[in-house]
Specification:
Blueprint lengths: L19 H14 L7 H8 L1 H7 L14 E4 L12 E4 L6 E4 L6 E6 L2 E5 L2 E2 L21
Antiparallel strand pairs: 1-4, 2-3, 4-5, 5-6
């Protein structure tokens, strides 16, 4: 089974209302603390990153010299009940409220292609408007 994005509803209101990767990290950490380890935490991180990139055949999911610099900095002390809280937010461009997932404090920073896209609760000003935050990742010959 691949562990990735959780499409947790068939309707736009519920789309992505479950932060599976963060909840998985919490589950693995809590199981280890309780003496019932599921897998080492580093293996859980690999399952959420490197394993997906390799299976999908894209140059992503690993940190290496000369590779893409896509990084998420997670504060493990913030993997707590805040991940379970219910939140709503307006959907831009529509007169609609949708359920959203929050990770208040858990995700400290996100770098996309080496550029800071999110840090300390705020998105970068140019995110979604400037080039350089990301690119299409071609599929390798091995997966065609």
């Amino acid at each position: 089974m691949l562990i990735s994005f959780a499409y947790s509803g068939a309707h736009i209101r519920n789309m992505a209302f479950y932060s599976f990767p963060l909840r998985m990290l919490r589950l693995v950490r809590d199981a280890e603390r309780a003496g019932r380890a599921i897998m080492p935490l580093q293996q859980a991180v690999w399952r959420l990153t490197g394993e997906l990139g390799a299976w999908l055949g894209v140059d992503a999911g690993t940190l290496r010299l000369g590779g893409r610099a896509d990084v998420v900095v997670v504060d493990p002390t913030a993997l707590d009940d805040r991940l379970d809280a219910y939140h709503e937010a307006p959907m831009e461009g529509l007169d609609l409220m949708r359920m959203v997932n929050r990770s208040d404090g858990a995700v400290r920073a996100v770098l996309v292609n080496g550029r800071v896209a999110f840090r300390d609760g705020a998105f970068a000003g140019g995110l979604g408007r400037e080039r350089g935050f990301g690119a299409f990742l071609p599929v390798t010959a091995a997966t065609r």
